[in-house]
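Researcher: Please translate sequence to structure tokens.
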Amino acid sequence: MAATETRLLLLGSVMIFEPVNGYQLRRELLSWQVEDWAHVNPGSIYSGLATLARQGNLERHDLVDGTREVAVYTSTEAGRAELQRLWRDAVVSLDLLSPLPFHTAVALMPLVTRVDVASALRERLAALDVKVREQVDGRHDAAGMPPHVRAMADLWMGLAVTEREWLVDLVGRVDAGDLELAGEDATWAPPADDPGWTMAHERARYLELIARS
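Model: Translation complete:
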């Protein structure tokens, strides 16, 4: 549970679907293919939720739903603050060879306000400009490097330049009011057969059960 991206992913997904039980969250995250791009073991989702609850970042509600008992989770004020902190750190901390925290933050961008998204992306862009300049300066000093090391440096340079181009475009889209971010009206909806609609119906029932308890 120590990895930034794992904490960020679990906190964010609970905030999207809350109240939500562990099985629903596991099913949803598997549909995001998190075991491939986020390296989150499906079995660790339950333990991660329990850890976040013990830390006060989530609240666990033990409910009786018909004939079964179910544990559902909601975010806490501390958890929402922790998500914002983790999200910003994942964006502004530049590590081109370990981009997973940043990729996770991009996946959860709708949970963050437009002002905060724009600020964090600009900070990352500034750090990326420094990195590109360092790579350019390093090329001038590469004469004594073995050829394979120079080839690796070219790869790093390519990664930095490609991300910079993408980031400039994204900042422009955010500034132009594109995308749907926290606190704004949502116009996009999943297709009618998306499993998320089932979760929405179950969420309403969980809210009623929580209110009764």
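Researcher: Any highlights?
Model: The chain has nine helices and three strands.
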